């Protein structure tokens, strides 16, 4: 049993894949192809990978409202997905992080003065239009879902509505409705078969600010779903997690689990077994919701193996550093309690 056999006919079952993996494809291909039917670039479809600084600056003033883009970083994943015949998630268009400061300035230098709202809205629209056109026109049906806006709501660094204001150049240039504007543009340029998502971490602790801020966009049909990143820890309460998921679903959102990992501090044998049970409980609850009609369409794990994870030292993923399956993997397959570990 592998994840494709367990879930492939019911869900997109995905993984975030670091780019170097495509250069050593033979080493990883069995593991990936038997377990995952959709891929997310861990970094190569983020604005800092796509925006072309040199070309934008060198072609001023004609590029003033329309920054240049390039797609060489994500070429390996596109090629592999086409060869293998799997889909991609596009992560992510509008985010405060991994978006270069120069994109927001008058002269496309990081020290430059920020442009006004009107200019930044043009840059936003052109960026979203160009990225969507590159994928949707160049590779029809390859991208099935797009994280249009990532991590826009945060109580601590947000304004009175919880819209992320601190260290957020989108907020500082466009203003507090930047996430809404991004959804408007994505809706304008996305094809009907591409699902549009709002994606965020710690959704379990902030379902209400997410729902209240997205209310108008949802009512206007600008987005399809909420991506629950799901960077969890063994100590995170699943009741709270699923209460948030149920809340989103009851408001008519499609749900994707987009960046699943479960961190274990001071891991030992017993804790790694508990991690297996944790993954199993999580997948049991996801699948039982699905079976009773909740619109959960995808589960993506954020990385392949513990040593490749952004959560170094937390043993958060399904495979160990030798690419051997952990209890977490059997739990993910809902086979943990039955297996002889
Ligand atoms: O896994 C990504 C890591 O390689 C990058 O260094 C990091 C930089 O921001 O981003 C990581 O991915 C993030 C994702 O894009 C959005 N949600 C949180 C993820 C983990 O930080």
Descriptive notes:
With 341 residues, this protein is α/β, with parallel strands linked by helices. The chain is 39% helix and 16% strand. It contains 13 helices and nine strands. It has helices at residues 3-7, 20-23, 25-35, 47-50, 53-58, 75-84, 117-138, 169-173, 178-189, 207-219, 238-250, 269-291, 327-332; strands at residues 12-17, 38-41, 87-95, 143-150, 195-200, 225-228, 231-233, 254-263, 296-301. An eight-stranded parallel barrel has the order 1-2-3-4-5-6-8-9, surrounded by five helices. The protein binds ligand 9MR. The site of ligand 9MR has 8 residues, from loops.
SS class? alpha/beta
| H-E string | HEHHEHHHEHEHHEHEEHEHEH
Oligomeric state of shown chains = single chain
Strand order of the largest sheet: 1-2-3-4-5-6-8-9
Index terms:
341 residues; alpha/beta; eight-stranded parallel beta barrel; binds ligand 9MR
Topology (SSEs and partners):
Layout: H1 3-7, E1 12-17, H2 20-23, H3 25-35, E2 38-41, H4 47-50, H5 53-58, H6 75-84, E3 87-95, H7 117-138, E4 143-150, H8 169-173, H9 178-189, E5 195-200, H10 207-219, E6 225-228, E7 231-233, H11 238-250, E8 254-263, H12 269-291, E9 296-301, H13 327-332
Parallel strand pairs: 1-2, 1-9, 2-3, 3-4, 4-5, 5-6, 6-8, 7-8, 8-9
Helix pairs in contact: 7-9
The protein binds ligand 9MR.
Ligand 9MR is lined by residues 42-43, 97-98, 201, 229, 259, 310.
